[in-house]
Structure formats: C-alpha cells, structure tokens
C-alpha cells in the first residue's frame, strides 16, 4: 500500500522533463535579458528563438517568465517545438508576439494569447504552425490585432481564406504582409509604428511647452510691430520737416529782391535830372 502513493513512472519522467525544460528556459531568458538591457533595467524585448527545444511542448512554468513579464513589449519564441501555450503569464505591455516554426493549433492556443496580452497586442506571428481552420482564429475577434502572419499554415489553403480572416478580425490591417486590397506592407510601416509608440508618452509634455513658446513668439511679434510703428512715425516726422524746409526755401527764392528794386528805382530817378540837364544845354547852344 505504501508504494501506491508514488506517481507512476511516466508521470515521474514528465516531471523530470519539465524540470529540465525550466532550467533550460531560465538560462535562455537570463542570457537574452542580459543582452537586451542593462543590469538596472527590465528588458522590453526578449528573443528566445531556437534557444530551447522543449521536450514537453510547453512554455516554462509561469514563475520563470513572470520575472520579466511586466516590462516586455516584444516576445519571440520561434522553433521551440511548442504545441501549447498553457501557463503563458500575464503580459500587460506586450505589443508583438512571434511564435513561428512551432506546432501550435486550435482555439485554446489563441485563447491563452488573448488572456495573457489581448489588451495591448498589435502584431502576432503564427507562421509555419498547424492552424487549419479559420474558426480556430475566433479568440482574436475582439482583440486589437493589426498585423497577423499565418504563412505556411494549412489554413492559408482554405477557399476564401483572406476574405474570411479579414471579416473575422475587424481590427486587422495586414494578413501575411498584405492588406485587404492586395497592397504589400512596407518595412517603413514598422518604423512608423515604433515612432508612434514613442511619441504617445511625449505628446502631453510637448503640448504644454509648445503653448508657452507660441505665446512668447506672439509677444515678440507684437513688440516688433510696436518698434516698426515707432520707426514709421519718426520717418513720417522727418519727411514732414524736410517738406517744410523745402517750402520755405521755395518761398524765399520767390520773394522779390528789395535791394534790387531799390537800385532800379534809384537808377531811374537819377537819370531824370541828367536828361533835363542835357535838354537845357542843347536849347542854349541852339539859340547861340
């Protein structure tokens, strides 16, 4: 009876395998976190592509990922032989989740994604997994996923696959790198998304500073306008003084020369006695 309380050999083997996986995941996470951030900062990006080949088909126990879960914005676990996402911890800031080249399938997998990071998730890469039916994607319906990759999944061969997926997920902008109208997604779109995310926290501060600067600029423009008005007034006064001086000069030039008139009058008066004197002399000489 005492031996019946021990787990069966298969369960013991599974527990041992899970323990080994957890140890491998811990080493991989520690190495990736060290390369992705400084010692004093929690990592925002965690890349575990090919770092672990899971023997159980599962992620590590929640406690292993919870140490970095709160800060993560990007998580990539490619080629890890995952067939389940059970135990995926809460990822409150995650925007990009990449799980390509695994063995994932079924709605339960995407339900785990929705529960762990559905509020913030925008990019989801499930390429080269085993999703075969559009209905398996139903848990993504109410999320805000904008970019979804399902390349090399059996579901891509379903008739009307693209139209059905776009209809199922209203927030979706790009499916397998192409929008609903057939336009390819450019690499610059990723850069613009990153810039928008960085600017979200800066808009408030820039708005307050911008208002103050605009007010100062307006004040400066008003002062410049006042200076211009003063300068224009001084210019008008100077022009008025010059015009007055010109009018005075013209008036002086037009005034008759009193001295010249006196000379003319004196000259005419002086000639009259001389003429009478000559006439008298001529008359005297004629009588003689």
UniProtKB/TrEMBL annotation:
SUPFAM superfamilies on file: L domain-like
PROSITE patterns (alphabetical): LRR
Compositionally skewed regions (Basic and acidic residues) per UniProt: 278-288
Start and end residues of each stretch annotated as Disordered: 180-288
Ranges for domain U2A'/phosphoprotein 32 family A C-terminal: 158-176
Xref: Gene3D superfamilies: Ribonuclease Inhibitor (3.80.10.10)
A GO molecular-function descriptor: histone binding
Keywords: Leucine-rich repeat, Repeat
UniProt-listed InterPro entries: AN32, Leu-rich_rpt, LRR_dom_sf, U2A'_phosphoprotein32A_C
Residue stretches of biased makeup (Acidic residues): 187-260
GO cellular component, one term: nucleus
Family listed: Belongs to the ANP32 family.
Name of this protein: U2A'/phosphoprotein 32 family A C-terminal domain-containing protein
Lineage of source species: Eukaryota, Viridiplantae, Streptophyta, Embryophyta, Tracheophyta
């Amino acid at each position: 009876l005492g031996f019946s309380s021990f787990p069966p050999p298969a369960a013991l083997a599974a527990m041992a395998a899970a323990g080994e996986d957890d140890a491998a995941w811990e080493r991989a996470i520690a190495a990736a976190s060290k390369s992705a951030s400084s010692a004093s900062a929690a990592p925002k990006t965690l890349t575990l592509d090919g770092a672990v080949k899971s023997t159980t088909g599962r992620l590590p126990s929640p406690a292993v990922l919870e140490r970095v879960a709160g800060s993560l914005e990007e998580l990539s676990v490619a080629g890890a032989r995952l067939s389940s996402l059970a135990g995926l911890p809460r990822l409150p800031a995650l925007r990009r989740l990449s799980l390509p080249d695994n063995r994932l399938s079924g709605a339960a997998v995407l339900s785990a994604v929705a529960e762990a990071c559905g509020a913030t998730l925008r990019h989801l890469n499930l390429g080269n997994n085993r999703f075969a039916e559009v209905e398996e994607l139903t848990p993504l319906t109410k999320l805000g996923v904008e970019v979804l990759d399902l390349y090399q999944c059996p579901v891509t061969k379903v008739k009307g696959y693209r139209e059905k997926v776009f209809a199922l997920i209203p927030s979706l902008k790009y499916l397998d790198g192409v929008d609903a109208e057939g336009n390819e997604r450019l690499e610059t779109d990723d850069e613009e998304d990153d810039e928008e995310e960085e600017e979200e926290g800066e808009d408030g501060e820039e708005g307050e500073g911008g208002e103050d600067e605009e007010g100062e600029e307006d004040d400066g423009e008003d002062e410049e306008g006042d200076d211009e008005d003063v300068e224009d007034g001084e210019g008008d006064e100077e022009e008025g003084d010059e015009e007055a001086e010109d009018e005075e000069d013209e008036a002086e030039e037009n005034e008759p020369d009193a001295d010249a008139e006196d000379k003319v009058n004196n000259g005419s008066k002086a000639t009259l006695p001389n003429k009478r004197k000559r006439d008298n002399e001529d008359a005297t000489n004629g009588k003689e």
